[in-house]
Amino acid sequence: MTTRTRTEQVTFERPFVLSGLDDPLPAGAYSIEFDEELLEGVSFPAYRRVAALLHLGPTPDHPGRSQTLTIDPSELDAAVARDLAARNGKAGCALP
């Protein structure tokens, strides 16, 4: 199976939550690394996300500490959809 790693910047306008974290993360831009596997048996190159790493930079409370968390890509998608819905004034709506 062929894999690739892709980095994407995701911006949240509101604080958001992900499972496994004690507190909500603040609004802002986050760097996400996606590990993707090439799908076999299709006539064009297509990839499926299998893992995601969320990179957290230093905070005022811990200025010298960075952190990387393994997160579920589908949970990230849901958090992005909630943030987008809140921006558009449609609480509870998800992306198509």
Total number of beta strands? 4
The radius of gyration is 15 Å
Order of helices and strands: EEEEH
Instruction: List the uncertain runs.
Output: 92-96
The helicity comes to 10-25%
SS element count, helices: 1
Q: Outline the biggest β-sheet.
A: 4 strands, antiparallel
Word description of this protein:
- The protein is α+β, with helices and mostly antiparallel strands.
- The chain is 16% helix and 38% strand.
- The protein has a four-stranded antiparallel sheet with strand order 1-2-3-4, covered by helices on one side.
- The longest helix has 15 residues, at 73-87.
- It starts with a strand and ends in a 9-residue tail after the last helix.
- Mean pLDDT is 88; it is low at 92-96.
How is this structure best summarized?
The protein has 96 residues and is α+β, with helices and mostly antiparallel strands. It has one helix at 73-87; strands spanning 3-12, 28-38, 47-56, 67-71. It has a 4-stranded antiparallel sheet with strand order 1-2-3-4, with helices on one face.
Write the layout of secondary structure elements.
Blueprint: E1 3-12, E2 28-38, E3 47-56, E4 67-71, H1 73-87
Antiparallel strand pairs: 1-2, 2-3, 3-4
Descriptors for this entry?
single chain; 96 residues; alpha+beta; 4-stranded antiparallel sheet
